């Protein structure tokens, strides 16, 4: 046990002085009635008499407990070493207009964001980052261990921030650039898209070769159903889209080649449940044992002292203004 702010112990030295001053002033104010000593008068000491002696001291005990609470007594547990599983993971998410297609509820992008957030929640010791791409790519969030920050950036992803198109190679290259200097033994890119590569100056296979050279595994995820789906066909000046039935093309072979070249795997998600299952599989595959920095746990006990002081004060008020209340004429 230790005290975080022991200087408040000085209040305990002041309390006796305050008590002495209080009782001296009360003695001067009180009226004394002298009676002759009569052995015939019976001496009655009931429970009210006993309580009346001790009730004034309850307030001082409560003040002493509050003074102790201000010192913040706490117990520091021994340092612990935790063996955890940690990987550096960059999420590369497609935010092209086709991700607003409504074969998912409410659309592909919202489902992809929701499942990605759940995946991030399950990786407490990893460093995670986020890349968004359409016709170009940018880093939305660099590698960090703060899961809440990554989840917030995932939630903020919207379509229309970049030029329309799908630059799969640019998205992967941007993610690789964030991982290339990482000291982690295990580096992974999870790339999710719903279409064919039709933009960008770096081809997807060239980016995959870069990942292979740097020892970065790439898991490619294709989201969406085949055939005719309700998809954006026109963008209005206010940023909204007009939807119409469209036949959506999907380059499965390209995504398979990218994943195979880097030692990763290709997955196809036809529904939200399948997408969740894919992330669960990747979660099980990407495990690397590491020793996390030692930690120290501290438990505070001041709230127990405050609670006891409050109870004593309430009890003192109930006794003083209840069963021990006297009528003054």
CATH class assignment of the largest domain: Alpha Beta
Number of helices: 9
The CATH topology of the largest domain corresponds to Rossmann fold
Low-confidence stretches: none
Reading the helices and strands in chain order gives EHHEEEHEEHHEHEEEHEHEEH
C-alpha Rg (nearest Å): 35 Å
So, CATH architecture of the largest domain? 3-Layer(aba) Sandwich
Largest pleated sheet: 6 strands, mixed
Overall helicity: 40-55%
Structural class, by secondary structure, is alpha/beta
Total strands: the figure is 13
Strand fraction equals 15-25%
Query: What is the CATH H-level superfamily of the largest domain?
Result: von Willebrand factor, type A domain
Report the end-to-end length measured between terminal Cα atoms: 52 Å
Q: What can you see in these coordinates?
A:
With 329 residues, the chain is an alpha/beta fold. The protein folds into two domains: 2-25 and 46-77 and 298-320, no CATH class; 82-292, Rossmann fold (3-Layer(aba) Sandwich), CATH 3.40.50.410. The chain contains nine helices and 13 strands. It has a six-stranded mixed beta sheet with strand order 6-5-4-7-8-11, sandwiched between helices. Strand 9 (227-235) and strand 10 (241-248) form a beta hairpin. The longest helix is centred in the N-terminal third of the chain and has 24 residues, at 47-70.
